[in-house]
Automatic annotation (TrEMBL):
The lineage of its organism: Bacteria, Pseudomonadati, Pseudomonadota, Betaproteobacteria, Burkholderiales. Coiled coil: none annotated. InterPro entries: ArsR-like_HTH, HTH-GbsR_regulator, HTH_MarR-typ, MJ1563, WH-like_DNA-bd_sf, WH_DNA-bd_sf. Belongs to the GbsR family. This is HTH-type transcriptional regulator.
Protein backbone atom coordinates (compact mmCIF):
# COMPACT_ATOMS: atom_id res chain seq x y z
CA UNK A 1 0.00 0.00 0.00
CA UNK A 2 2.85 2.36 0.85
CA UNK A 3 4.36 2.20 -2.62
CA UNK A 4 1.03 3.34 -4.04
CA UNK A 5 1.16 6.31 -1.68
CA UNK A 6 4.62 7.36 -2.79
CA UNK A 7 6.85 5.74 -0.17
CA UNK A 8 9.29 2.94 -0.86
CA UNK A 9 8.59 -0.65 0.03
CA UNK A 10 10.92 -0.86 3.03
CA UNK A 11 9.49 2.29 4.61
CA UNK A 12 6.01 0.84 4.09
CA UNK A 13 6.97 -2.49 5.63
CA UNK A 14 8.48 -0.85 8.68
CA UNK A 15 5.47 1.40 9.14
CA UNK A 16 3.10 -1.54 8.81
CA UNK A 17 5.07 -3.45 11.45
CA UNK A 18 5.01 -0.48 13.83
CA UNK A 19 1.30 0.06 13.17
CA UNK A 20 0.36 -3.47 14.22
CA UNK A 21 2.84 -3.68 17.11
CA UNK A 22 1.32 -3.15 20.52
CA UNK A 23 4.54 -1.66 21.90
CA UNK A 24 7.25 0.54 20.36
CA UNK A 25 10.12 -1.37 18.74
CA UNK A 26 13.88 -0.86 18.70
CA UNK A 27 15.57 -0.58 15.28
CA UNK A 28 17.31 -3.95 15.79
CA UNK A 29 13.96 -5.63 16.51
CA UNK A 30 12.52 -4.09 13.34
CA UNK A 31 15.47 -5.26 11.22
CA UNK A 32 15.40 -8.78 12.68
CA UNK A 33 11.65 -9.14 12.22
CA UNK A 34 11.64 -7.92 8.62
CA UNK A 35 15.06 -9.19 7.54
CA UNK A 36 16.28 -5.68 6.74
CA UNK A 37 19.77 -4.30 7.34
CA UNK A 38 20.30 -1.93 10.26
CA UNK A 39 21.31 0.91 7.91
CA UNK A 40 18.19 0.45 5.79
CA UNK A 41 16.04 0.45 8.94
CA UNK A 42 17.73 3.66 10.08
CA UNK A 43 17.20 5.42 6.74
CA UNK A 44 13.57 4.29 6.62
CA UNK A 45 12.89 5.45 10.17
CA UNK A 46 14.33 8.86 9.28
CA UNK A 47 11.90 9.01 6.35
CA UNK A 48 8.99 8.11 8.63
CA UNK A 49 10.14 10.78 11.07
CA UNK A 50 10.23 13.31 8.22
CA UNK A 51 6.60 12.41 7.51
CA UNK A 52 5.94 12.80 11.26
CA UNK A 53 4.43 9.31 11.32
CA UNK A 54 6.52 7.78 14.10
CA UNK A 55 7.40 8.78 17.61
CA UNK A 56 10.75 8.09 19.18
CA UNK A 57 10.73 7.04 22.84
CA UNK A 58 13.08 5.55 25.39
CA UNK A 59 12.55 2.98 28.09
CA UNK A 60 13.76 3.59 31.61
CA UNK A 61 17.21 2.05 32.07
CA UNK A 62 17.66 1.44 28.31
CA UNK A 63 19.76 3.80 26.19
CA UNK A 64 18.26 2.60 22.91
CA UNK A 65 15.52 4.45 21.04
CA UNK A 66 12.18 2.81 20.36
CA UNK A 67 9.74 3.69 17.61
CA UNK A 68 5.97 3.62 17.55
CA UNK A 69 3.20 5.11 15.44
CA UNK A 70 0.98 8.05 16.26
CA UNK A 71 -2.00 7.47 18.52
CA UNK A 72 -5.11 7.04 16.43
CA UNK A 73 -5.74 6.35 12.75
CA UNK A 74 -7.11 9.92 12.58
CA UNK A 75 -3.76 11.28 13.80
CA UNK A 76 -2.05 9.21 11.12
CA UNK A 77 -4.49 10.42 8.44
CA UNK A 78 -3.92 14.05 9.44
CA UNK A 79 -0.13 13.64 9.47
CA UNK A 80 -0.06 12.05 6.00
CA UNK A 81 -2.42 14.68 4.60
CA UNK A 82 -0.40 17.53 6.13
CA UNK A 83 2.88 16.20 4.76
CA UNK A 84 1.44 15.60 1.27
CA UNK A 85 0.13 19.14 1.37
CA UNK A 86 3.55 20.47 2.38
CA UNK A 87 5.37 18.45 -0.29
CA UNK A 88 2.89 18.68 -3.16
CA UNK A 89 0.13 21.28 -2.82
CA UNK A 90 2.09 24.21 -1.37
CA UNK A 91 4.88 24.10 -4.01
CA UNK A 92 2.23 23.86 -6.74
CA UNK A 93 0.36 26.87 -5.36
CA UNK A 94 3.62 28.80 -5.12
CA UNK A 95 4.55 27.98 -8.73
CA UNK A 96 1.08 28.93 -9.99
CA UNK A 97 1.10 32.17 -7.96
CA UNK A 98 4.46 33.08 -9.51
CA UNK A 99 3.27 32.24 -13.05
CA UNK A 100 0.14 34.34 -12.60
CA UNK A 101 2.25 37.42 -11.82
CA UNK A 102 3.60 37.41 -15.39
CA UNK A 103 1.52 39.43 -17.88
CA UNK A 104 0.15 37.69 -20.96
CA UNK A 105 2.03 38.61 -24.13
CA UNK A 106 -0.39 36.97 -26.56
CA UNK A 107 -3.91 35.56 -26.81
CA UNK A 108 -2.68 32.02 -26.27
CA UNK A 109 -0.72 33.11 -23.18
CA UNK A 110 -3.83 34.90 -21.89
CA UNK A 111 -5.80 31.65 -22.31
CA UNK A 112 -3.04 29.67 -20.56
CA UNK A 113 -2.97 32.15 -17.67
CA UNK A 114 -6.74 31.91 -17.29
CA UNK A 115 -6.51 28.12 -17.10
CA UNK A 116 -3.71 28.40 -14.54
CA UNK A 117 -5.80 30.89 -12.55
CA UNK A 118 -8.67 28.39 -12.49
CA UNK A 119 -6.26 25.69 -11.30
CA UNK A 120 -4.84 28.03 -8.67
CA UNK A 121 -8.30 28.95 -7.38
CA UNK A 122 -9.31 25.29 -7.13
CA UNK A 123 -6.08 24.31 -5.36
CA UNK A 124 -6.37 27.29 -2.99
CA UNK A 125 -9.98 26.38 -2.20
CA UNK A 126 -8.96 22.78 -1.48
CA UNK A 127 -6.04 24.02 0.61
CA UNK A 128 -8.34 26.23 2.71
CA UNK A 129 -10.82 23.36 3.09
CA UNK A 130 -7.96 21.20 4.28
CA UNK A 131 -7.23 23.79 7.00
CA UNK A 132 -10.82 23.47 8.17
CA UNK A 133 -10.63 19.66 8.18
CA UNK A 134 -7.41 19.69 10.20
CA UNK A 135 -9.22 21.60 12.97
CA UNK A 136 -12.06 19.09 13.22
CA UNK A 137 -12.13 16.48 15.95
CA UNK A 138 -11.93 12.82 14.89
CA UNK A 139 -15.61 12.45 15.75
CA UNK A 140 -16.59 15.37 13.49
CA UNK A 141 -14.38 14.08 10.68
CA UNK A 142 -16.06 10.70 10.93
CA UNK A 143 -19.52 12.29 10.79
CA UNK A 144 -18.50 14.36 7.77
CA UNK A 145 -17.17 11.31 5.94
CA UNK A 146 -20.29 9.33 6.73
CA UNK A 147 -22.43 12.01 5.12
CA UNK A 148 -21.00 10.95 1.76
CA UNK A 149 -23.56 11.19 -1.03
CA UNK A 150 -26.10 12.79 1.31
CA UNK A 151 -24.24 16.08 0.82
CA UNK A 152 -24.65 15.79 -2.96
CA UNK A 153 -28.38 15.12 -2.54
CA UNK A 154 -28.69 18.16 -0.29
CA UNK A 155 -26.89 20.38 -2.82
CA UNK A 156 -29.08 19.08 -5.65
CA UNK A 157 -32.19 19.82 -3.59
CA UNK A 158 -30.89 23.32 -2.89
CA UNK A 159 -30.26 23.96 -6.60
CA UNK A 160 -33.77 22.77 -7.51
CA UNK A 161 -35.26 24.98 -4.82
CA UNK A 162 -33.36 28.04 -6.07
CA UNK A 163 -34.47 27.35 -9.65
CA UNK A 164 -38.08 26.88 -8.54
CA UNK A 165 -38.05 30.09 -6.48
CA UNK A 166 -36.48 32.04 -9.34
CA UNK A 167 -39.12 30.65 -11.69
CA UNK A 168 -41.90 31.85 -9.40
CA UNK A 169 -40.53 35.38 -9.23
CA UNK A 170 -40.01 35.81 -12.96
Amino acid sequence: MGSRWGINRTVGQIYALLLVSENPLHADDIGDTLGISRSNVSISLKELEAWQLVRRTRKLGDRREYYGTLGSVWDIFKAVAAERRRREVEPTLSMLRQALLEPAASTSEHYALERMREMYELAELANNWFDELQRLSPESLLQLMRLGSKVQKLLTLKERTVVALNGMGG
